[in-house]
Amino acid sequence: QGDCGGRECDLLKTEIRDLQEQLKALKATVGKIQKAWIFMNGNSAGEKTFQANGSEGDFETSKATCSQAGGLLASPRNSAENTAIQQIVVRHNKAAYVGINDIETEGSFKYLSGEAIGYSNWAGGEPNNLGTEDCVEIYPDGRWNDRSCNEKRLIICEF
Ligand code: GMH
Ligand code: CA
Asked: pLDDT (tens digit, 9 = 90+) per residue, 96-143?
């Protein structure tokens, strides 16, 4: 409880107040930087921010690129996130892989975490596993197509 006393206690109280002020200022600064960053070249949905830097890669490269950047290959878990990713695809006029695949079990699409997907936005007739298609691309219209993991696609990461 608040029953500490003496000079040492007063000092701690002052330090805590000072830290609280610094934290508040820090949060405001981070918020501004985040907004400016999203304004420049990204998008957001809920707590997630999505970014593309124009680079392209196959599924493994896309996954590794995002992971090396401290993020995750964009993995839409609801329509708001899907729309945010779609808008970046439109901006770059280039389809992108999402962090979803059925590499492990054909027809069982999972996030990179291994969890089964809880949301999907397949284009008509998809997934059709044409040849062998274990990865998922998102088109400019926001719809998904299962696709070979070896194509070159826009890299979009989430943070
Ligand atoms: C087939 C057809 C197309 C479809 C492609 C795509 C390949 O060529 O069904 O309409 O767009 O497959 O699913 O990944
Ligand atoms: Ca397909």
From this structure: 999 999 999 999 999 999 999 999 999 999 999 999 999 999 999 999
Q: Which H or E element spans position 21?
A: helix 6-41
DSSP 114: S
Spatial distance between the Cα atoms of 153 and 90, rounded to a whole number of angstroms: 13
**Which value does ipTM take for this structure?**
0.95
Atom nearest to 133 CA in ligand 1: 14
CB-based contact 142:60 (threshold 8 Å): no
Give the Å distance between the CA of 99 and the centre of ligand 2. Answer: 16
Cis peptide before 127 (omega within 30 of 0): yes
Outline where DSSP puts E strands in the chain: 42-45, 48-57, 72-73, 96-101, 110-111, 135-138, 144-147, 153-158
Classify strands 135-138 and 96-101 as parallel, antiparallel or unpaired. antiparallel
The dihedral built from the CA positions of residue 53, 42, 121 and 102, taken in this order, carries a sign that is positive
